[in-house]
Here is the input.
Amino acid sequence: MSDIRPAGPLDPETQQREALDQVAPAAAPDTAQPGVPPSAQPKTKKKDGKPASLWSDAWYDLRRRPLFIGSAIMIFILLVMAIFPQLFTSVNPYDAATCQLIDARTPPSAGHLFGQDNQGCDVFAKTIYGARVSIMVGVTTMIVTALFGGLLGLIAGFRSGATDVILSRTTEIFFAIPLILGALLILVIFGRGNVWTVMLALSVLAWPMTFRIMRAAVITAKNQDYVMAARALGAGAGRIMFRHILPNALAPVIVIAMINLGGFIAAEAALSYLGVGIQSPEISWGLMIADARDRFLEAWHPLIFPSIFLSITVLAFIMLGDAVRDALDPKLR
Here is the structure.
């Protein structure tokens, strides 16, 4: 039986739809490259058929980078060491009974893998427990500076005008102060240093770099066509900032935050080494290095082992930041 259609001319949309229904769907273009295995063929879509995004492409690229895999494994071990130090040593370095002054500066042995320090404490146990303070300071400072500097950079770049001028000039004042010197002055004013004062001192002075990067990314993003289209559709300032501009300006901020994290850990160690950072009875790699420097010629191990762990930790986070930067920047692939 033939279809029964209403008399009269069809509207343009119906005519176009019927014309498209009669056309066979075009075959998908063959994008396979000869001589390249299927696993290495370029992927333009996900398995569910949706177009790949910047973040999915970056994750796909990161999983194939030895630099990312190696740094991620090192950081995972360091995080487990900081959260569960009991898994690596049964000695509690915070217990004074575990330190025997008569055994001070004993070299590494089967009972003490890294030897004993100037107070007769186990260097291996102190090195393991020292990861907690160093990583806590680095991660917390990174989060605070990324949130604070990123938010101010987003506002300055989007608002422009007087708001941008005031925030930029204020940022330049903080940016002109060297991080270590400024943090040293703040800690001297506060008096006795601890984890929270060190994080505060570093956070107060380290956010301008994140501000500048976010501001530049927002200024570039707000002139794109999708932002103009959102304005034309009547989207408010808040929706444009956080829904359209922020996701597209976030990549460089994430990269600089990962790289800065290693710098914050090194800065904490430097402040503790100078005597204004973490104070005893807390345990920090910088504090361990400071305690061992005067007797280095008599006993090298209390200084070398925490220095090695500090260097590996800083290197791991910098390597991770480099890998993320390369994956998020299509020009570097």
Observations:
- The two ends are 60 Å apart (CA to CA).
